[in-house]
Amino acid sequence: MAFDHLSERLQMALRRVSGKGRLTENDIDSMMREIRLSLLEADVNFKVVKEFTAEVKKKALGERILKGLNPSKQVVKVVHEELKELLGGETSGFALPKKDRATIMLAGLQGSGKTTSAGKLAAYLRKHHESDPLLVALDTRRPAAIEQLQTIGEKISVPVFEEGTKTPISTIIADAERFAEENGHDVLIFDTAGRLHIDEEMMDELKTVKDELAPDEVLLVLDAMTGQDAVAVAKSFHESLGLTGSIITKLDSDTRGGAALSLRKVTGVPIKFMGLGEKLDALEIFHPERMAGRILGMGDVLTLIDKVTENVDEDDMLSMVEKMASGKFNFDDYRKQLRMIKRMGSLGGLMKMVPGLNKMTKNMDIDDKRLVHIEALIGSMTKEERKRPALVKQSSSRRRRIARGAGRSVAELNRLISTLDEQARAMKQMSKTDPKNVNPENPLAGMPAPKQPKKKKKGKGKGKGGFRF
Description:
The chain is of the alpha/beta class. The chain has three domains: 4-86, Up-down Bundle (Four Helix Bundle (Hemerythrin (Met), subunit A)); 102-291, 3-Layer(aba) Sandwich (Rossmann fold); 305-431, Orthogonal Bundle (434 Repressor (Amino-terminal Domain)), CATH 1.10.260. 54% of the residues lie in helices and 9% in strands. The protein has helices spanning 4-15, 25-41, 46-60, 63-66, 71-86, 114-128, 143-156, 169-183, 200-213, 229-241, 258-267, 288-295, 301-311, 314-326, 331-344, 347-352, 357-360, 369-379, 383-387, 389-393, 396-406, 410-431, and strands at residues 102-107, 133-137, 160-161, 187-191, 217-223, 245-249, 271-275, 283-285, 459-460, 466-467. Helix 7 links the parallel strand 2 and strand 3 (160-161). Helix 3 runs antiparallel to helix 5 and helix 5 (71-86) crosses helix 12. The longest helix has 22 residues, at 410-431. The radius of gyration is 27 Å and the shape is flat.
């Protein structure tokens, strides 16, 4: 993800003060130097970095924190709060106006992912708002852009309105609105023309489009890979069009992410959506607090819950849990579980949302292709073998045949069998949990604790083996 390097550096800076029962001004200064360098390396605007670090230092040096019972935790809280404010404070959200038809105008430079974002937004609105969107091609300068929008529309089963490259834009807008009214489309998403660079001609054209449309939303699509240039681009578009929000694309890529951290502070334009992948369902509402938590390694349980709710059938999940607890979990169930996970996104991305697991994943080789390999192994089994894992465990000849059929090694199959057993054991252990003892903030707290070795009693005084108090 775009913030991975920044996340690592910020967590390293915070470790300088973590666990300390007492903090000095030197401790805070040392931490702030690391934070400042981390943000500058992430391509965050210099003025934004200066203001951010000054505010964090001011609050971190407060008497209540320095003399508090747990100053290091208070400092982390301050950094989290300021990072949240930097990213926009409260979630801007996305609510369609209550009227017959809503209009959304997308603007942006060529190559920013604008056309793809139009398709993603249409898919999002249909899924989350039960809308019937219509995509409208207004890029009359590039036939390839119209073709791309048509291809995307076919993939998500959303109609695309276009009238080629020779029809005046004002005519296309009027015809699209009439078409939408006749066919019951309640949201129109207009994909406007882009350029490689900002020029006066493009801005004049976009102003004309905006005046004719009077859109409910004017969203700027920005590529996270453009760094500080994205902020300059946003300022120019905002001054000309009066943006209502932005969509940051390619936040899943290995970029520095400075655009997202600088955008709201410099331009005042809220980030409403973020693109996290090439798939046309990979668009999420941008939550500043959740993103701040991810960057600081605190995980993002709320987004994980949202993903589970959207992609996993509750009855299927309950049935699977019951099978695990009763020891009847088989390879068919395991394959179904894998497919649920794949619908939610990349495995590495999901693990980073779980508090604590993000540190564990740092040195792990998390490759989503492994899920494909596992499915191939399960697909190579007979129907009876998938239902009765014991048949595979007890027969080396079966294991060789299954591995050969999947084009994988017997060692991989053995690991799969072990994983299945481990899941069953973990589920049986969890079934012994007393619900009365479960802390809603830490569901694992109610599980039986492992036996700890007995500690030797500490002696008193100065005698042999004793400690001074």
